[in-house]
Write a structure and sequence with these properties.
The structure is a homodimer. By secondary structure, the first copy, chain A, is of the alpha+beta class. Chain A has 2 domains: about 30-290, L-amino peptidase D-ALA esterase/amidase; about 295-415, ArgJ beta chain, C-terminal domain (Ubiquitin-like (UB roll), Roll). Chain A contains 12 helices and 16 strands. In chain A, the strands form 2 sheets. In chain A, strands 1, 2, 3, 4, 5, 6, 7, 8 and 10 form a 9-stranded mixed beta sheet that branches. Chain A has a 7-stranded mixed beta sheet with strand order 9-16-11-15-12-13-14, with helices on both faces. Chain A is globular.
Chain lengths: ~425, ~425
């Protein structure tokens, strides 16, 4: 690229970034954060309790109920091995409507064959019968150990109790009920004018003896048509839950559900999208921060790629590299490993054009180290939160990922006995 | 698949396996292991010494010289970020002939710009001038820290000494001279009738402050035409160095070179291929066993995939999964993580058809856990060497990978300060 053109592209990139940030700020002013997560939106109730699935006696079940049938949107794991509740939900969401989500932790109900599927059906029926809704309107989620049959009697007893307990203040209990290795609940809700968007989530880190899962439940009282809601959720998930990396593994149970009961009436779609994006991203960031053994929260920004897809390849390679993540754990500004990771990714790069900065401090310029003292870079990498900025100087493609370091504690945590 | 057809496929698979093992045994009888690695073949000399590149004072340079110009074959890293010596070698091998390989450890000469390339050229010229060969016939390899200029004066002094020291017994010193984080030298040689194949290698694990590399140098006195030699090396590398995984990262300097000087005259190509395969696989296995912090050597065998490519996707997903490797470290037979990894790989699977065995003990049959007591599986996973056998029951594709566990020591080793 001639220098003139290159400068113009740079100016364009800066302008685009400035515009995006400005828009983000306007959107942030638009909505205010509120409490209550999944019960912030009107017409939703929730509950959570300990049904005895977890040996620890901690909360292991959650229920979210909408007073009226809600429009439903969903995103499921792309893993070819799908847990029974995922298979069931994929059928149920075809009805387009949902009244309730029932979830359990401590047991994934995955690799459990036909009996597993029957158990998932039993869970949805147990709720449906009591709230007087068709079975298809009750969605089921499980997370926990793989290959073990559900203790269905305990679960059915739990469901009865949950239905007695559901209330406008039960969101926190529900958030507790879906936790596995998580150390804190993940809750977020915003109010935009007359409508609300709120959600709870649980972590993507995986632990022994459980193989845990990413679950996200979003509720809103906005009235959004089904197709628009599905598009909106897909977009929100793509820029949040799909842009985080803890260990790069994808689970058999990953599920994000969004229920829109329309109690607040019609809303502006861009406003709704902004609110949904915000809630999903906040929940996703909490998941990374609560990853197993995590000591550092790192944002990886790739720009100047030939396409957004290329940028994603590069950002993902950096975010998933064991060597890169381990160097962060030691507070080591090892930019060589970054070069290596983007070099072997499927993203097109030209070594002599790559710029890398830690926060705003350049470490690599045109593929070669800058004169920045290592101590200055080390100070950044030693802090608990920092950003890696990679400019490939080849185009306009960009991608941002949120990730964490790989620590001895992660290994200790996951290695089992 | 109807059961009759399925049984036939199974019988076919068993027959193919039996045949392959039989052929392997015949081949093993064919050749005898000998000492001397890269100097086992006639007409090759080698040397290694400490030139002062490594602060530790350990050996950091190696030289292999052939008395006569040898036919050369090569496999280089597919990383888009290539070190200067790799770029130089890619030009030099076009001549088809090589007299010498000069290598240094402690400095990768990567991300060093034009000066790095000049330094690589200087290394090859320094050798070529003294052995009276064209510059193109001297190949250069570097491994070690990225982004630091070579101490070229020390290296040129080292080359002078190396040329005085080269001998028929210098192979071990050469193997020492290319080591970085390796704890033992990787050497192997076999004799087949009148010809020899031998080689040295260094590890693929990466350490701080070095970003280490996989290097492999193979020598033979067989006379093999250039195109056939290149095909043979590609095949041997594909089933050895390309079938191992330590952390899944690919380096900027990975290089395998094969020099055939023809002193022993023409040979049977299948015999040569078998010997080359054997030497490369033995070296590759040694690399895995010497991986950083490794306590377990695990073989992952996938069969019954739709194609060999599919089988490779599945085997690679298992071998590279942080969660799977961590569970091995703890001696935990966590087959759920295996199901998860093959499920998210690009390999086509049907959950209800997957069989998994640890050594010969079945853990999963048709996608569901067997009644094998966990203690029995645990005993296998607790041993230092075991095999994971995955049968997808979908076709005839198969792939074998060699990998290791992920330990706290790996993290400690790689995290830097």
């Amino acid at each position: 690229m001639p220098i003139g053109v290159q400068r113009k592209v740079l100016a364009w990139q800066r302008a685009a970034l400035h515009y995006a940030r400005q828009r983000e700020n306007i959107m942030k002013k638009l909505f205010t954060q509120v409490t209550g997560s999944v019960t912030a939106a009107r017409g939703f109730k929730a509950a959570g309790l300990a049904a005895g699935i977890k040996k620890s006696g901690k909360k292991d079940m959650a229920l979210i109920v909408s007073d009226v049938p809600a429009t439903v949107a969903s995103v499921f794991t792309r893993n070819q091995v799908k847990a029974a509740p995922v298979k069931l939900d994929m059928l149920h969401v075809k009805s387009g409507k949902a009244r309730a989500i029932v979830a359990n932790s401590g047991n994934a109900n995955a690799c459990t064959g036909k009996l597993g599927y029957v158990h998932a059906q039993a869970m949805s029926e147990a709720v449906a019968r009591r709230i007087d809704a068709p079975t298809e309107q009750v969605l089921v989620c499980s997370t926990g150990r793989i290959g073990v049959n559900l203790p269905i009697v305990k679960i059915e007893a739990g469901i009865k109790k949950l239905l007695r307990q559901v209330s406008r203040t039960g969101a926190r209990d529900a958030a507790l009920g879906i936790m596995t290795s998580d150390t804190f609940t993940k809750e977020c809700a915003v109010k935009v004018g007359k409508f609300h968007v709120g959600g709870i989530a649980k972590g993507a880190g995986m632990i022994h003896p459980n193989m845990a899962t990413m679950l996200g439940f979003i509720t809103t009282d906005a009235a959004v048509p089904r197709a628009a809601l599905q598009r909106a959720l897909r977009q929100a998930v793509n820029q949040s839950f799909n842009r985080i990396s803890i260990d790069g593994d994808m689970s058999t149970n990953d599920t994000v559900l969004c229920l829109a009961n329309g109690v607040a009436g019609k809303v502006s779609l861009p406003e709704f999208q902004a609110a949904l994006n915000y809630v999903c991203l906040e929940l996703a960031k909490m998941i990374v921060k609560d990853g197993e053994g995590v000591t550092k929260f790192v944002t990886v920004e790739v720009c100047g790629a030939k396409s957004d897809r290329d940028a994603e390849f590069a950002a993902r390679a950096v975010s998933n590299s064991a060597l890169v993540k381990t160097s962060w754990c030691g507070g080591d500004p090892n930019w060589g490993r970054l070069m290596d990771a983007i070099g072997y990714s499927r993203c097109k790069i030209i070594e002599e054009k790559v710029d890398i900065a830690y926060d705003d401090v350049p470490a690599v310029k045109a593929g070669q180290p800058t004169r920045t003292p290592v101590a200055k870079l080390r100070k950044i990498v030693k802090s608990p939160t920092f950003t890696i900025r990679i400019n490939l100087n080849l185009g306009r493609g960009r991608c941002t990922m949120h990730t964490c370091d790989l620590t001895e504690d992660y290994v200790t945590f996951n290695k089992g006995e």
